[in-house]
Automatic annotation (TrEMBL):
Species of provenance: Alteromonas arenosi
Keyword Transmembrane: yes
Keywords: Membrane, Transmembrane, Transmembrane helix
TM helices/strands, residue ranges: 12-37, 63-81, 93-115
UniProt protein name: Uncharacterized protein
């Protein structure tokens, strides 16, 4: 196994938590939707403090998640730009992680867009 492959595998393992971050975001969206439906079904007024609290806690959690993903982003950048790995498995997994993070907006979407840019750089 070459040095580039080893760094590629390490970077993909370091970016693996993005799977859980995507699942967490989807559960947040469904929970918020369930809250709105339950409030409207009971003819109650929406409490903006509850919604604002949930949204702010999600934003803080995404900021912490971005800090956790930083080592993986740095290793993936090193692997793609310095070691010039262009193998199919690396670009496919990079593309998969980038789409997961793009769909996890607003903060983790920035990391997803960066991975998408990095994946396009590996094609060259």
């Amino acid at each position: 196994m070459g040095k580039a492959n080893a760094f590629g595998i390490v970077s993909m393992i370091a970016l693996a938590p993005s799977l859980f971050y995507f699942a967490s975001f989807i559960s947040f969206v469904f929970a918020l939707g369930a809250y709105v439906v339950s409030v409207s079904a009971n003819a109650e007024a929406l409490d903006p403090k509850i919604i604002a609290g949930e949204v702010s806690s999600t934003l803080v959690q995404q900021t912490l998640n971005l800090v956790v993903l930083l080592p993986g982003l740095i290793i993936a950048t090193f692997t793609a730009l310095k070691l010039k790995i262009g193998q199919g498995w690396f670009t496919k997994v990079l593309n998969f992680y980038s789409w997961l993070l793009i769909l996890t907006f607003p903060i983790l979407m920035l990391a997803g867009l960066y991975l998408k840019w990095l994946r396009n750089k590996t094609d060259v």
